[in-house]
C-alpha cells in the first residue's frame, strides 16, 4: 500500500490567477426550516434560499496586497470566486461583504475576507 498524497485547495478570483490564501472555509446552506402545526410537531420542512459563504485569510507581503480588498468591499463589486479542491471546482458568484485586518507584534499582517453569493451547479 502506497502513501496517500493530500493535495491543497486553491482559490481564484474571476478568471485570474490563484490567490495566495493561508486558509479558507466554504459553507453551503439551503436554509431549510422544520414546520410544525398547533396539533403536530415536525410535519414537514420549508426550503429556503440557497446561500454560499466563503471566508479566507491572506497575508500581506512586502509588495503589498494582491487586490484592493477594502475597495472590493466598499464598492460592492459583483465577482466570481472559484474554489478548487481535488476532483471539484466550485464557482460562487457574489460579492465581498466583510474585510478584517489584523496584525501581531511577531507575525505578518493578515486580511480576513468574507464572500457571499450563489454557487453555480
Annotate the secondary structure layout.
Elements: E1 10-13, E2 23-29, E3 33-35, E4 44-46, E5 51-60, H1 69-74, E6 78-85, E7 88-102, E8 109-119
Antiparallel strand pairs: 1-6, 2-5, 3-4, 5-8, 6-7, 7-8
What would you note in describing this structure?
The chain has one domain (10-119): Elongation Factor Tu (Ef-tu), domain 3 (Beta Barrel), CATH 2.40.30. The chain contains one helix and eight strands, in the order βββββαβββ. The radius of gyration is 19 Å and the shape is extended. A hairpin with a 6-residue loop joins strand 7 (88-102) and strand 8 (109-119). The strands form two sheets. It has a six-stranded antiparallel beta sheet with strand order 1-6-7-8-5-2. 5% of the residues lie in helices and 50% in strands. With 121 residues, the protein is mainly β. The chain starts with 9 loop residues before the first strand and ends with a strand. The longest helix is centred in the middle third of the chain and has 6 residues, at 69-74.
Amino acid at each position: 500500500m502506497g502513501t496517500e498524497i493530500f493535495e491543497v485547495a486553491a482559490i481564484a478570483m474571476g478568471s485570474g490567477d490563484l490567490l495566495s490564501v493561508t486558509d479558507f472555509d466554504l459553507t453551503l446552506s439551503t436554509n431549510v426550516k422544520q414546520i410544525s402545526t398547533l396539533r403536530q410537531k415536525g410535519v414537514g420542512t420549508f426550503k429556503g434560499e440557497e446561500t454560499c459563504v466563503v471566508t479566507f485569510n491572506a497575508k500581506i507581503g512586502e509588495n503589498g496586497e494582491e487586490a484592493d480588498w477594502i475597495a472590493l468591499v466598499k464598492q460592492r463589486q459583483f465577482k466570481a470566486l472559484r474554489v478548487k479542491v481535488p476532483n471539484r471546482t466550485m464557482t460562487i458568484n457574489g460579492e465581498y461583504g466583510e474585510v478584517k485586518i489584523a496584525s501581531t507584534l511577531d507575525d505578518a499582517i493578515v486580511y480576513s475576507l468574507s464572500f457571499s453569493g450563489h454557487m453555480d451547479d
